[in-house]
Amino acid sequence: MNTIHNAFGVLFLGILLGCSSNEPATEELPETLTVSSIATFSANQEMCSTNITSNLEWRINNDANWISVSPPSGSNNGAISVSVSSNSSPYMRSEMLSVSGGSLSRFLHITQEAAAEEPAPIPSSGLDPNQAPAENFDLSKWKLSIPVNKGNGTATDISVSQLNNNYENSTYFYTASDGGMVFKCPVEGYKTSANTSYTRVELREMLRGNNTSISTQGVNKNNWVFGTAPQADKNAAAAFDGEMNATLAVNHVTTSGSSSHIGRVIIGQIHANNDEPIRIYYRKLPNNNLGSIYFAHEPTDGNGNEQWHVMIGSRNNSASNPSDGIALDEVFSYRIKVVGDILTVTVIREGKQDVIKTVNMVNSGFNEGGQYMYFKAGVYHVNNSGNDADYAQATFYALEKSHTSN
Fold first, then answer.
1. Which of 210, 231, 234 is nearest to 404 (CA)?
2. Would you call 11 helix, strand, or coil by DSSP?
3. Can you say whether residue 267 is alpha, beta or left, with left for phi > 0 and alpha for psi between -120 and 50 degrees?
4. Cβ–Cβ under 8 Å, residues 186 and 199
5. Fewer CB within 10 Å of terminal CB in the chain, N or C?
């Protein structure tokens, strides 16, 4: 019996070995490593993603100080982010990054455009750096506010007559070396009233000029109204409808403060009784090298919520660098125009297409009786959470306004 069992066992083992010897040997998969290409970067600071397709562990070798890659290594398929710093030189630059894995090596070609042509020269024709601002600009119907205590705990007003008597202030309001009109405003300082939260170095339109017998407030000969206002208001006001054109460069914004305040400044307004048909903002966040432009439209009480309109970039507190943004010291222009209930805002830059936004204000309440308007321009510093000495600064190279006369 044992002999039979042993014979059966030998036979069974032989069958198993025979079957095993017929199995094909396991083949190793071929190594794969491919890297998707990346389009040419613009001269601005930018980031884009690309894909690696592989069955290997891989590593990216990067010795270029203007390129960063994340992650620098990985395994199998994956996505990587490639960032480039801004290119300020007039020459295109490129780099070949090697991607190695196993016995394979591939290359990722990174190319970045040269900086744009030299920026347009500052339009300082006719501006004399040795003259006071009112000698270079028509300020005959403007007054100025500076954040200095006038004696009662509120900001000081520089009247129309004072402003046009060669007024300058080396801290807040003065002529730049290129003849521009400088507005510089710190975080800390005196405000125009107890109801205001922010400091400003800002011009306020005064259509009365030097005629101080006319009140600054009200539907009167110091202010203007919409062309759709009641006829009685149009007759009482100095004018109706209006257009303001400004050419400027923002030189500095705050780098401290809360995330909702940092880097923002108002550079132009239409102010009404208690609300603003428009406030134009420039904002550049600390980690970005370009800034955004947007504006607010604030209807009167009971006529809807404040509206926000983005023209360039983003108003987000953590926005990435706007690819078409405006750098500090870059000269640009804005136009605010009101005809009837139609508000048109235009941002103008040399060599670029104008950016235009239109708002229909028919339901905003400004065409009702008793509503009056005036332009404002300069630096309204909407950051009260930064360091006291932090500041915003803008230099104006042109400032003009007009209205329709009665």
1. 234
2. helix
3. alpha
4. yes
5. N
Place of tokens 């042509």: 117
Give tens-digit pLDDT for 298-323: 999 999 999 999 999 999 999 999 98
- Per residue in 114-142, pLDDT (tens digit) is 776 444 444 556 899 999 999 999 999 99
Q: Hunting for tokens 């069992």 — which residue is that?
A: 5
Q: Which helix (H) or strand (E) covers residue 289, if one does?
A: none
33-112 has CATH 2.60.40.10 classification? yes
Q: Which fold has domain 133-404?
A: Jelly Rolls (2.60.120)
Residue 377 phi, psi dihedral angles, 5° rounding: -150, 145
Name the residue among 121, 315, 136 with its Cα closest to residue 306. Answer: 315
Structure tokens at 359: 């708002």
Note the Cα 186 to chain centre separation in Å: 20
The residue among 266, 295, 279, 242 whose CA lies nearest residue 401 is: 242
pTM of the model: 0.71
CA neighbor of 217 nearest in space, from 3, 373, 385, 42? 373
Q: What is the DSSP letter of 360?
A: E
Nearest-CA neighbor of 208 among 218, 220, 196?
A: 220
> Over the Cα atoms of the chain, what is R_g?
33
Residue pair 289/85 in contact (Cβ under 8 Å)? The answer is no
CA angle centred on 22, ends 16 and 26, rounded to 5°: 110
